[in-house]
Amino acid sequence: MFKGLWTSRGLRAGRDPLGAALGSLERRVMDVMWAGDHMLVREVQGRLERPVAYTTVMTTLDRLFKKGFVGRTRQGRAFSYIAAQTREQVEAAVATGVLEGLLSNGSGAAMPILSNLVDAVGREDGGLDMLNALERMVRQKRRRMQGEDK
């Protein structure tokens, strides 16, 4: 489903939600796109940390355009590219997609996911604050849902 999500030992651990949706070069190109504005292929190529062939960057940007990660406009014979969404919007969409996929197997399958979520939040710095915020969100959602039922 998501390239890079699995290793030979199972699910890849990591803190980068985009690692599951983008290849390594795609991610590096998107980091450049999020740091700038409209850019030509040559500009993106020049801002990458490691040298990459012009045609490889052009192909990567075309692939990202087809996936909806970047927009483009014609400038003469070339295209100018810009990030279609912010990094935060893309991370939220990836996280939502993963969670909806995991939760779609019914409420019984959801319990281990929810338990792991609470455990992961509790292990983070500021975990207590995040757990309190999560609890507030659950209460607010419950009130909204109960209001819809009336």
What does this structure look like?
With 150 residues, the chain is of the alpha+beta class. It folds into 2 domains: 6-83, Arc Repressor Mutant, subunit A (Orthogonal Bundle), CATH 1.10.10; 107-149. Helices cover 60% and strands 12% of the residues. It has 6 helices and 5 strands; from the N terminus they run ββαβααββααα. It has helices at residues 24-35, 41-47, 54-67, 87-103, 107-123, 127-149; strands spanning 6-7, 10-11, 39-40, 70-75, 78-83. The longest helix is centred in the last third of the chain and has 23 residues, at 127-149.
Task: Name some characteristics of this structure.
3-stranded antiparallel beta sheet, Arc Repressor Mutant, subunit A, single chain, 150 residues, 60% helix, alpha+beta
Percentage of residues in DSSP E strands: 5-15%
Q: Give the number of domains.
A: 2
Order of helices and strands: EEHEHHEEHHH
The second-level CATH architecture of the largest domain is Orthogonal Bundle
Helix proportion range? 55-70%
Could you give a short account of the major beta sheet?
Answer: 3 strands, antiparallel
Task: State the total count of DSSP E strands.
Answer: 5
Task: Label the overall shape.
Answer: elongated
- Could you tell me the CATH topology label of the largest domain: Arc Repressor Mutant, subunit A
CATH superfamily of the largest domain: Winged helix-like DNA-binding domain superfamily/Winged helix DNA-binding domain
Please mark out the parts with pLDDT under 50 across 5 or more consecutive residues, or reply none. Answer: 1-13
Q: What is the highest CATH level, the class of the largest domain?
A: Mainly Alpha
For the biggest β-sheet, the strand order reads 3-5-4
Q: What structural category arises from helix and sheet content?
A: alpha+beta
Radius of gyration: 20 Å
What is the residue-mean pLDDT, rounded to a whole number? 84
How many angstroms does the end-to-end distance come to?
A: 39 Å
Number of helices: 6
